[in-house]
């Protein structure tokens, strides 16, 4: 008889990973503490040891996970801004199930640190009004991804023939969506430069 493998210890990272999987495959509305506990093969109450505020803490953690991006500074503020926007878009597209949280939850924890880092990078590279620019860039990225997800039909598949949303890491995305994003980003950066 094969030896039984010990259970994988429960951790905040495992909880977030399982919650992301549920949200991305079934939608945020289907993410309950009980369903999450079942996916992790633990009692739902065990999750509260890692997230004492329960579902509120879980929602905050998911929003933070997809919005706490990092990008290395570029040669110019425009290069830095492009790198941040591309990294943000990739993170949001990877987890369409929590896009609504990213759009509605204010940056906290690592996400707030990332926003501050981006602002400092742009200011250090010579961009005046860097904080306003970061707000505009974040709004653009979040809106662009929301439109992409909406157009993909991910939220409301209408039939069996619909292709599921595939994030870029698994073959999703299109050249047209990429070109639209880059065109809009170029226009926004030009506007910020003129301002």
TrEMBL record:
Identification of the protein by name: HTH tetR-type domain-containing protein
Lineage: Bacteria, Bacillati, Actinomycetota, Actinomycetes, Streptosporangiales
GO biological process entries: negative regulation of DNA-templated transcription; response to antibiotic
Residue numbers spanned by region Disordered: 154-177
Domain HTH tetR-type: 9-69
SUPFAM superfamilies per UniProt: Homeodomain-like (SSF46689), Tetracyclin repressor-like, C-terminal domain (SSF48498)
DNA-binding region: 32-51
Keyword terms, alphabetized: DNA-binding, Repressor, Transcription, Transcription regulation
